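Subject: sequence -> structure tokens, single chain

Hey, anyone have a minute? Need the predicted structure for the following. Not urgent.
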Amino acid sequence: MRKNILVIGGTGLVGKVILRLLQGRNPDYTLFIGSRHPGKASSNLVIDVTNPKTFDCIIHHRIDLIVMCTKDSNDKILQFAIKNKLDYIDITKPTPDLTLAYNLAQENKQKVESRIVFSSGWMGGIVGSLVDLMEPDKDQIQEASVYIYYSVKDQAGKSSANFLAENVCKSFIVYVNNKPEKVRHFLNSERFNFSFGIGKRQVYNLDVPDLFILNQIEKIPTVLVKMTYNSKFVTSLMGYFQRFKVFNIMSLRERQFLFGSSGKGDQTVFEVIVKTKIKIKKLSLQSVNGQAELTAFSTVLHIEKMLKEVLSGGIYFSHQIHSSQELYEALAGHHSINIKVG
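Reply:
Had a minute. Here:
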């Protein structure tokens, strides 16, 4: 089988790392970069996700798998992939866009002959697999929580910053005993003790697609996600801005500037807590090289799985295409990732 892979958004932060890792691990893959702007190499394809007329080159270059690393709010690439029986994976969608895309795919389920994979959960959609690793029997799980440590020194792409800028003043949904509750970012503070020497920090609400995935797909009754910054001052400031509605009087450009600062690289850490009727389990993951590297590496693992031809056509979330043990071993074996379970 050919293995021609198109990374749309391949000139962005995460897209570049995906391409680097793919090339290093799989030199037999033929890689193409999709962007609105023309490049010098023959592997650079001009693709504008808002203009389906630019999609013809995907068929011309006999692409097997499309990797979405850029925003496609109208899901034109998703529809193109389904129509043309192309494998597809998306890592960029915030929760509202993910739910729309998933519903669209389900509405066209009878037409889906390729592998359509949604991988927009935290750090390339690996949380679901880690939850499954800790407790395979989802009926036993009462609550799953994700606690995120984010360093302002880390490299960050535009998509996450723009999402926060656009949505920080809006409420979003968390699930408590299967009841949706509206909350807002940077409120409902609690104290959490992070691993890897970070220690106790105040954590606040954050909207990530795992809220939808773990409750609506995996049927876990209570799902919460909270985050902290490496700077205690910045964390407190965000809570202050939300409580006193400072975000509401800021322009979108001002909020984009506030959330869009990006450093040269730092560690990223997140912790997954699973509660059953009889015990509490914890998994802690640290990526020394930061969130872009972790997201890209997770995505590469999904791509490699999709191209092994063991996965039948259908609609999946990324955690559904792996055995949890297989994915855990791949993550734990990577030189820049540390995992603690206990």
